[in-house]
User: Fold this.
Amino acid sequence: MSLEEPEPESAALSREGYESLLDAAETYREALVVRCCGEVGLRPAELADVTPGAIDRVRTDPPRYLLRLSGSRVAYLPTSLERELRRYVRSNGISSDEPVFSVSARRLQMLVAEVAERAGERFDEPTLASVSTEDLRRYFLETALIDRGINPLVVKRVGGWSSFEALEPYLSSPTDDEIVEEFAAVEANPNPDSGGERTVSDGSVVRSLLTASDRCALVRLESDGYVDRWNRSAESTFGYSAGDIVGTHVSALYADEAVERGLPGRALTRALEESNYEGDDWFVREDGSRFRAVAVVTPLRDDRHRSRGFALLVCDVSQHHERLEAVRSDREDLERTSDVAARHRALTDALLEATSHEEVETATCTVLADGRTYDAAWIDRTTHSDRRGEWRTAGGLEADEVDRLVPDEWGEPRSSARDRRPNGTGVSESDDPGDGIAEATGTGAVAVATGIEATVADGSFAGRVAAVPVWYGDTVYGRLTVATERAAAFDETERAWLETIGRQVGYAVAAIRRRNLLLSDRVVELEFVCRDEDSFFVETSRRFDCRVELDSLVPLSDSTQLYYVRLEGASPADVFERAEAVPGIDDCRLIETYEDACRLEFVVEGSSPTLTLTEYGVTVREARFEEGTGTIVAECAADADIRTIVTGLRSAFPDSELAGKRETERPVQTGREFREGLEERLTDRQEAALRAAYSGGYYDWPRESTAEEIADAMGVSSPTLHSHLRKGQRELLRTFFDDPADE
Assistant:
């Protein structure tokens, strides 16, 4: 079959179908091939002949392009497609004389067939699956001749057709209605030579409205409002065929409420009075479905200004209104996000100014309830002594009013953040409704309860609440709960923000406790007793009947600590074997062996009594574990809330208790006392070696002097210098790290 003789006529490819083909293209090349066929009218063989050098810019301002192929073949190249081709050429490094599509014409045909088959499957449209390159050329021809009204001679030239007869198989035969529509101008003006001006004639109005008929429904009405003419766009919009609707009153196209308001008749009256009417209302299709549309009614008049009916243009704007509603919804989301950001900034400022645990809680609740996002906010800390919540409220709510907003049951906790969650819960187990919050938030996720209805001081409340733990490391200091009447509250983004707030407030609490301890002249010495089997060292001392004493504790991260301990009465191998079975022990090794004991190193990840105390702003001074009992001596600031510290420890290790406390002065060592103490520990040679190495730049980076140069200057050997330096450095570090009270 000749390329000038297309295959038997099939259903014409619509604009929507063409867009579906482009959507089905999975590669940049596939999309370009489809566009070159459908928008330039190229055949497969001509596609294979396209090179970057064939693109000819024939106009500069604005730029316009032609494709000059072999022989005298010339095709028009749309500017947007030229840009895409240039981009493809640059990204693939194609030279000016190389083919843009370096495959055979047959392969290009198959590529279009593959895209068509994919489009048919993806959009469940069988007719798309059979689209070929010839169908795309037919689409190009119909678009150029019918939709764009391009001169047929130009279309024949750029499409590569040899005669007008070659174009005919691509075009559908006109229907009777189309023939009548095309000759409407003859009926409107049977004598083209007659003079006289027509300001708003039947033919001029119809022709002007026809330019929008592919987007809108164009209906010709008689003077009394009955449908006189019905085009294809109207049939597509409303679903009625011309035979079903012609002779029916225009009110059949309006929704019932519009008819009850008398809108159809009022629109025709106003159009006559004002020469035009435009309105936005609801219309109804044949199947009963409704759509929002803009209706324009224009009176039609003859050359004597006599009324000859109306032209009704109905443009479906449903998508516009849907987008408008979406924009409104997005605006509400943006306003909420803006308020959330403002709350977050205000909270950050308040946390920076807070100087105590109570101030952090009060500031958090006040800031969150001060904006439009939340109606109320509170933080509770549950204690073991009275098993009741100590409520911190904002927004004018008293403690008993807060109780009314606490649900009996919480929804399944849902986490949005990807961070590590706290292992402790920070609360006790009881039958109090407040403990339900603890169970819901023990994993660090946000728990939400909906359908909350209560009467508070300012009136009634009907909404939802969300609870999130206030935590840092493995310690939970309490629970933050917020209440709002927003129907769409606590989506994934908002839950992630609340989790961030919970961690931020927890971090502030821990930082303030530690700062207060560092700045306090007086401290409270606390002695804790722990018999909880979840403590590795407690259970080790019980199982092996041994003694474990803490020499040094080094924090490595928020949840990891390095323990140096002295072990007596047990074999290190037995202890290491048990450590391998405990998930919280990451590593262990033997440091030094004595006559009746040994020194061990443990890397402990996760919850431990010392870590929990540290996260409550407590400094651990001593710890010893013997016969299943651990005794921990620690210090906290004089104004610290000791009950909260005890509650926090017992929440993670229930079999723990406070054995004693006493207030004491913090020992202070001046710089002079430190230097004098160090001089007593160093020998003369050690001090001389340290001074020579320091002054000679041995400790600088990069080093100003090597060890050999320092040794030569001192008149000693290099090994001797290193021995003095190591011993002197050890005494220096021992003086700095060891407690002077232990001396």
In short: The CA atoms of residues 189 and 203 lie 8 Å apart. The radius of gyration is 43 Å.
